[in-house]
Design brief:
By secondary structure, this protein is α/β, with parallel strands linked by helices. It has a single domain (6-151), classed as NAD(P)-binding Rossmann-like Domain (Rossmann fold, 3-Layer(aba) Sandwich). Helix content is 28%, strand content 19%. The protein contains three helices and seven strands, in the order βαβαββββαβ. Strands 1-2-3-7-5 form a five-stranded mixed sheet, sandwiched between helices. A two-stranded parallel sheet has the order 4-6. α2 links the parallel β2 (39-43) and β3. α1 (18-30) runs parallel beside α2 (68-83). The longest helix has 16 residues, at 68-83.
């Protein structure tokens, strides 16, 4: 990691501790490196975004049980980053529902804790434009020590 601009966290696995454990391992490791240290870019969960009523999708009745481990694990990672010191991090949440393979539109809008919605109220983003937004964030560093999201 010495000499790197950023470290991208893109992990998946069983249970709900992997994401927080990855966040902790990176924060602890990177905080011991000499300056300039790489920034952590964590590919997070849309289930941690805030709905208009201030709740998260993962806390909603009927949230799919098969996604609960990922959602709670990602929420724990975000909480860990928010309480960390000694490193720069960015947590990038995709839209909570309409996120998947699609067409690269070449544009997107960003937000912080609430899904970015289009004129129809839908929070949508393709994998292709998510990747562009991720690289843009690595290059521009607009969202230091915070979470952001993107959508059309």
């Amino acid at each position: 990691m010495p000499g790197a601009d950023a470290v991208v966290v893109a992990v998946n696995g069983p249970g709900n501790v992997l994401w927080r454990d990855a966040a902790q391992a990176l924060v602890e490791t990177i905080s011991t490196l000499p300056e300039p240290r790489p920034r952590i870019i964590h590919m997070g969960s849309g289930a941690t975004l805030l709905l208009p009523d201030g709740t998260r999708p993962l806390d909603s009745p009927g949230f799919p049980a098969q996604f609960m481990d990922v959602a709670t694990g990602q929420a724990a990672a975000l909480d860990y980053y928010r309480s960390s010191q000694g490193v720069e991090w960015t947590y990038f949440s995709p839209p909570p529902l309409e996120f998947g393979p699609g067409e690269r539109r070449g544009h997107y809008r960003t937000g912080l804790d609430h899904p970015v919605t289009d004129a129809d109220g839908r929070a949508v983003l393709s994998y292709e434009d998510f990747a562009v937004a991720l690289v843009d964030e690595i290059e521009q560093g607009r969202f230091l020590n915070t979470r952001f999201t993107a959508g059309y």
